[in-house]
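Reminder to self: tokens first, then the designed residues, so the page reads top to bottom the way the pipeline ran.
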């Protein structure tokens, strides 16, 4: 770069908050600059990444400010054609003027008055984005930063700040990814120039700008392998104490910048070498932090960064006075949060199970024990309590190996601290501890030998029982003002209660159901006794106990007779108007249906309770689910079939009284209870089938005759009900009948469905809702029983697909293939069906754009063909359709749609699987036909697979399950190693050299195991990604 002269200052830049930057396609930075008016200035520049969609560009443009009419005319003079960008000038002075004009346009406060102004603004933004990738940007940004002339004009001051920040931001990005644009010999001068700028702007207190400059210095330090950076910076503070602030700023950012994956390096070993040097320098850095006489917050920010990103030896931290200072800083509100972050990071990075950390662990525990936790509880300061709770919980999780060791006295103190944190009145704080209890139970269950594990459980049983009390009386309780809470607040409460339920269940896994239920049962009795005089207002304790009892239902035996009878005896006496309590009680009935089945005398008053709950919207779902669960436990003692069928008949007599999902829950229960009753009594089930189905048939008949019917409201619910009936109502065929009663139902409504589907328009998607019914009726009735309906079903599917082009019919057809594909007499009809559907599909899937508009059709088409090649391959393999499908699949592989992409890969892999099978069976005709297709289309398939691995096409499934990139390549390699090598030679021609050579080495191994091949594919993919990042710049 001839125009880059030695000594020019280059900008550096990234924020200490860079870990919060998440968007890979946009750089969003907000710099608040102090102006006479204290106006915040927002900067938003699009990242120079190719392939950004026009929609994303439009969204980003809408966030930019509008430029003035004067700037518009200047931009028009720069470039008259709005569709193309002007060339970047190699003349620095000329380019500076263009950049200033573009920045003025982007940050102008005037409002747009015409589309032309918006186009000009967009042009200015595009020009700035393009400039950030250019080589001349190095010098231009340097010159912009040099322009630091003083002015009294507030607008000019803001204009300068905008230009300086843009220059700093640009240079920080280029130091990460564009240093290859500079000769290596110029990097030291670039570093010196950055320090000049850093010193200049640090002296005036411009924090946002100095952050970017410090980030640039840090990125450049790694790029140029400046391994003595720490020593050199510390030495510079001896001769110039004013540089201490700059050095602290760099120390704050350097470790994170070294670890950042946004730092693009030609050799990743440079990163690891730099990290090793940071480790060796950590003692000096800690000393420097200790001697820092500036802001305490800055000291803890730097310390946090080094602990998080530099693997400092634990002995270095143990010996550092900063450790104790961090705990002392917790007593200062100004430094409490930062000091807590430091301490917590130490716990996370130095857990107790690593032997080398033992000295640090033994020092941390006494320091933690000095926390004034009792005083904080007395004062009730939520900020302090939250901080202490975080510290104590993180310590206990990190020191889990100590808790599960034989050092019980010391370890029990940790558990006791966490238990006290769980009792903090503010549930938002006390809930922080729940993950610790989960981890403790998980780890306890893994302890070996069993005798030692049981000894630990016995020792911690008192703590776990106290935790049960805390969950029931505190963590699980609804707030007293629950009726006044918003929907979002209630969502948070439901989430927290779910975690509390899991915690109670975890305790039950260790302590056993009887002990936990005994604890909760006594708490419930006490809560009911205390609230008995005013249940309407004091129900919260009863509800929380019931919810805890509900969560342990899997651990309670059916012969429990001490506490559950009391629990279910009080349910009918609970106030009917307290909906949260009624909802929990309804759920409790369902979860203990197995117990109630053994105690039927307690069930009778509970059924009206549930039936009434169906009419209360808040409780309806819980009541419906409980009714279904009771029906699943139906037996001769509690015959639920008839009473629930009557209840369901009453409910459906006026459609709409119950939400469909709750309606279906009750119907499923009816079907299961009736099925159990028919099985146990051996009665003819036809009568029950008619009673359940006849109302549905009547409603469908009325719908077909109604020209104004609405499928979503009138038809789909009925089809969903039929699906449930066919799936869960089991009625055996009677000896005197040759037809299954379910088949009789299907035949009786077949003409209604046929009439309906013949009338629907292509814009209605009712066919998809009919899918589960079609699939289930085949599977439940059995392929043999349903066989008489197969031909009319296939005909209906083809006709419906021709009219509607809806993917649902393809899926239904694939079910037919799965169920009947292996029966030879159906192979011809099945092929005719899928061939007709393929013809329809190809009529509107002609190119990539067509496939992109119909991803659901692509998905189901290829899954259907994949099932055909698996269950009934011969007709398809011997037909010209196979080659057309491979050609279409080669296009479908390019879709950026996970399901559609996976469907094409699934079809291809199934085809290759069949090819491998043919090699063993010696079926020469089919083998020759398949090989002919692969010879013609294999290169295109392999090209696309390789492009997916290289990042040029979507890679939706690399190596998991059937239909993966690695699976197809490995099986092609097994099918024909020579042909595969030929295809890969062509496909890898444009791949980066190093990953290409390594992958070819894998292909030369003809017997490579699948797992090793997957690793090779992943390695090739990772190598290409890294090379692509370098090439992008």
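Designed residues (1033 positions):
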């Amino acid at each position: 770069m001839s125009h880059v002269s030695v000594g020019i200052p280059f900008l550096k830049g990234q924020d200490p908050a860079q870990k919060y930057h998440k968007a890979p396609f946009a750089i969003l930075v907000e710099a608040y600059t102090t102006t006479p008016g204290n106006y915040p200035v927002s900067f938003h520049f699009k990242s120079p990444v190719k392939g950004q969609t026009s929609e994303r560009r439009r969204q980003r443009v809408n966030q930019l400010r509008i430029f003035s009419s004067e700037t518009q005319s200047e931009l028009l003079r720069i470039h008259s054609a709005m569709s193309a960008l002007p060339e970047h000038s190699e003349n620095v002075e000329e380019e500076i003027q263009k950049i200033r004009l573009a920045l003025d346009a982007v940050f102008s406060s005037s409002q747009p008055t015409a589309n032309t102004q918006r186009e000009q603004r967009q042009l200015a933004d595009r020009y700035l984005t393009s400039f950030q990738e250019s080589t001349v940007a190095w010098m231009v940004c340097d010159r912009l930063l040099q322009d630091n002339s003083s002015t009294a004009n507030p607008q000019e001051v803001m204009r300068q700040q905008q230009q300086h920040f843009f220059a700093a931001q640009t240079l920080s990005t280029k130091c990460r990814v564009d240093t290859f644009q500079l000769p290596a010999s110029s990097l030291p001068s670039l570093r010196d120039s950055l320090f000049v700028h850093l010193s200049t702007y640090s002296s005036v207190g411009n924090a946002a700008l100095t952050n970017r400059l410090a980030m640039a210095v840090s990125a450049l330090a790694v790029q140029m392998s400046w391994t003595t950076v720490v020593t050199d910076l510390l030495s510079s503070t001896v001769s110039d104490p004013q540089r201490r602030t700059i050095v602290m700023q760099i120390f704050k950012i350097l470790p994170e910048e070294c670890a950042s994956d946004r730092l693009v390096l030609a050799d990743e070993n440079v990163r690891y070498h730099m990290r090793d040097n940071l480790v060796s320098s950590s003692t000096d850095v800690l000393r420097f932090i200790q001697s820092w006489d500036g802001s305490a917050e800055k000291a803890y920010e730097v310390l946090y960064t080094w602990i998080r990103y530099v693997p400092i030896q634990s002995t270095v931290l143990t010996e550092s006075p900063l450790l104790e200072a961090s705990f002392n800083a917790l007593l200062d509100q100004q430094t409490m949060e930062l000091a807590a972050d430091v301490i917590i990071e130490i716990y996370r990075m130095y857990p107790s199970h690593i032997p080398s950390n033992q000295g640090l662990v033994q020092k941390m525990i006494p320091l933690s024990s000095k926390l004034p936790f009792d005083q904080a509880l007395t004062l009730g300061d939520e900020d302090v309590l939250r901080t202490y709770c975080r510290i104590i919980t993180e310590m206990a999780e990190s020191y889990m190996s100590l808790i599960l060791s034989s050092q019980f006295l010391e370890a029990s103190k940790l558990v006791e601290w966490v238990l006290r944190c769980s009792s903090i009145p503010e549930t938002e704080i006390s809930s922080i501890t729940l993950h610790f209890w989960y981890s403790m139970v998980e780890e306890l269950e893994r302890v070996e030998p069993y005798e030692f594990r049981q000894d630990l459980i016995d020792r911690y049983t008192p703590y776990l029982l106290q935790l049960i009390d805390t969950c029931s009386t505190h963590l699980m309780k609804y707030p007293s003002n629950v009726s006044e809470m918003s929907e979002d607040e209630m969502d948070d409460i439901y989430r927290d209660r779910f975690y509390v339920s899991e915690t109670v269940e975890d305790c039950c896994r260790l302590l056993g159901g009887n002990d936990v239920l005994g604890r909760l049962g006594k708490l419930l009795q006490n809560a009911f006794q205390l609230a008995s005089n005013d249940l309407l207002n004091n129900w919260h304790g009863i509800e929380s106990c019931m919810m805890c009892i509900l969560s342990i239902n899997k651990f309670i035996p059916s012969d429990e007779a001490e506490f559950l009878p009391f629990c279910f005896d009080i349910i009918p006496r609970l106030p009917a108007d307290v909906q949260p309590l009624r909802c929990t009680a309804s759920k409790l009935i369902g979860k203990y249906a197995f117990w109630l089945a053994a105690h039927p005398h307690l069930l009778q008053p509970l059924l009206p309770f549930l039936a009434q709950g169906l009419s209360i919207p808040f409780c309806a779902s819980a009541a419906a689910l409980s009714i279904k669960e009771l029906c699943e436990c139906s037996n001769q003692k509690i015959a639920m079939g008839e009473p629930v069928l009557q209840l369901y008949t009453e409910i459906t007599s006026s459609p709409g009284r119950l939400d469909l999902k709750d309606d279906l829950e009750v119907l499923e229960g009816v079907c299961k209870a009736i099925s159990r009753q028919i099985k146990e009594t051996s009665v003819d089930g036809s009568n029950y089938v008619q009673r359940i189905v006849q109302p549905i048939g009547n409603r469908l008949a009325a719908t077909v005759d109604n020209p104004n019917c609405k499928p979503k409201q009138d038809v789909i619910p009925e089809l969903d009900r039929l699906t449930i009936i066919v799936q869960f109502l089991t009625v055996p065929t009677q000896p005197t009948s040759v037809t299954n009663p379910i088949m009789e139902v299907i035949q009786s409504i077949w003409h209604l469905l046929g009439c309906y589907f013949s009338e629907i328009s292509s814009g209605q998607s009712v066919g998809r809702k009919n899918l589960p019914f079609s699939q289930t009726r085949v599977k439940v009735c059995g392929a043999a029983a349903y066989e008489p309906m197969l031909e009319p079903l296939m005909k209906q599917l083809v006709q419906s697909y021709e009219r509607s082009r809806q993917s649902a019919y393809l899926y239904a057809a694939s079910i037919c293939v799965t169920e009947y594909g292996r029966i030879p007499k159906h192979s011809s009809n099945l092929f005719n069906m899928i061939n007709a559907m393929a013809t329809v599909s190809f009529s509107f899937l002609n190119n990539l754009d067509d496939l992109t508009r119909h991803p659901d059709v692509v998905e189901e088409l290829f899954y259907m063909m994949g099932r055909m090649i698996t269950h009934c391959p011969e007709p398809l393999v011997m037909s010209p359709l196979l080659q057309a499908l491979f050609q279409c699949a080669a296009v479908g592989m390019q879709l950026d749609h996970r399901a559609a992409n996976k469907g094409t890969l699934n079809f291809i892999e199934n085809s290759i699987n069949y090819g491998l099978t043919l090699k063993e069976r010696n079926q020469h005709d089919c083998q020759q036909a398949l090989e002919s297709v692969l010879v013609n289309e294999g290169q295109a398939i392999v090209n696309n697979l390789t492009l997916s691995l290289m990042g040029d096409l979507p890679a939706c499934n690399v190596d998991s399950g059937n239909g993966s990139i690695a699976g197809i390549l490995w099986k092609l390699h097994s099918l024909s190693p020579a042909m595969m090598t030929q295809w890969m030679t062509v496909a890898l021609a444009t791949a980066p050299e190093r990953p290409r050579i390594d992958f070819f080495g894998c292909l030369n191994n003809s017997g490579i195991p699948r797992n090793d091949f997957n690793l090779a594919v992943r390695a090739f993919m990772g190598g290409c990604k890294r090379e692509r990042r370098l090439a992008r710049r």
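Residues 84-224 form one domain.
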